[in-house]
Please model this.
Amino acid sequence: MTKKERAFEIAKRLDHYFPDPPIPLHHKDPYTLLIAVLLSAQCTDERVNKITPVLFEKADNPQDMVDLGRENIQDIIRPCGLSPMKSKGIYGLSQILLERYEGEVPNQMDLLEELPAVGHKTASVVMCQAFGQPAFPVDTHIHRLAWRWKLSTGKNVDRTEKDLKAIFPESLWNRLHLQMIYFGRQYCPARGHVPEICPICKDFGRKSLFKQK
Model:
């Protein structure tokens, strides 16, 4: 089976298990999504979704966020971890949005990546989930699944993203990104994974996985 054929079969199974995957981070517009994605770094979506209502009640737009102040932001988001860095990023990008973009989040990848604390993955999530533009955000979890399913041999997320974009049609990128997230959580976790019963690994996974204890 070629990589393209394997990708087609995997996409069919993802469609079966998660035909209409919701966006996991709660938000109401591009700005609140951007903040939520930034907070999700090394933090679970579940925890972020508990913290953002508290934060957004006080500040759900760049002006209110700047008015709230970095110290107050840090106090609120502390449960998400890395609060000094994240609060600095949130405060800084909010200032830039006011100064350069009239308070609006730009819908261009390169402009998003110029914002403080916004890396390529965060920008990709905003592009596809807020603006509906084709993107394939790859985090360590999707990176792991792509390797397990023999879709990529990439040593890093950047290489894996290129591999996935090359084998899947652009029209599927946004949905596949979410499908892989949900499938990985439920059926193909990093720890305690049983390849023999995983709906994808049992047929398309690397044989080496079956030797893992």
